User: Fold these one by one.
Assistant:
Number 1:
Amino acid sequence: MSDTPLHLVPVRSRQAKEFVQTWHRHHPPPAGQIFAVGAADDTGILRAVAIVGRPVARHLDDGATLEVTRTASDGTRNANSLLYGASWRAAKALGYRRLITFTQEDESGASLRGAGWHLIASRPPRAGWHTPSRPRTGHGNDHVARFLWQAPEQMSADNLPSNRQPPSPCS
């Protein structure tokens, strides 16, 4: 849509969720978050948001990892790359050692590559969360392959205290 220069802006939870509700292609806003950040043009119009929270997968929720659970854009070029970079800088400033996100098989990952992120794993499609003993409603991502990405410059084991090891990528 717009090729005007963008700058980062703070975004409150409600505003970020409303933006995701309006602009995201296939998911509703996430339930919770640690922080959100936005990208606005020179006139102050919000063009994109990123919502960062605890990892959805409990085995990745180690206290040192956050997940970009949603980004949404009105189509403004480079907005998501700007937000992925800003999200990682903010997460590091808050003391987190790892930032991850997932894409679906029909998403190119261009914004992530543009921000220097690395593809670290692929996940096969899952049948869903519903079982007879525990009924669940589908969330729109069942039967879709996913890809796990990680922000650059992760702390190595050499940089961690001796009693901590870096979180291992999920299998």
Note: Residues 155-168 have pLDDT under 50 and may be disordered.
Number 2:
Amino acid sequence: MHRYYHRAMRLTFLASLLLIASGMAHAQQVYRCGNQYSGEPCRSGGGRVVDVSPPVRNLDAAGASQVFLCVSNSGGRFWSPDHCRERGALVERIEPVPAGLPWEQQVDIADRQTRQGYAVQQQAAQQRGASSPGVTGASGDTSRCAHFNERVAYYDRLARQPQSGASQSWIAEQRKEARDQQFRARC
């Protein structure tokens, strides 16, 4: 009976491997048609095939290592080969670097990657036309945005004072209306 059990388990294992392998061989393509994705080609013929395979990232010991950019409680930043919590700090970034290099070279590479990452973020924000929140509106009217900020701050101060439930509800409604106007003015 023991021998039959092992044989049945081996057959089950082989069958499951074959099933997985056949599923991989017949992976379904995904098509992008405008802003929609589908398992079928676009009717207009203008869609394109999208690669949905999982990203491959080799961070094993032979290929790459991780360097941590830490922020201390006093606000200072430093690089560490160990997790920041071991030094009583918070993690700002984790950068993959080649393993086997001297520490100074790993820090140089991580610094470069960090600067490139921040530059890409800043460029994307500029392309979207993002501005500092609460500073300027779509027309550049700073006084109007400042007015909305002052109104919201006023309602925040009021809400922190002891008030009845009805007063707190009124304050919340007024604050929401001020925020809505601020949003509509693109501040």
Note: The first strand starts at residue 30 and ends at 33.
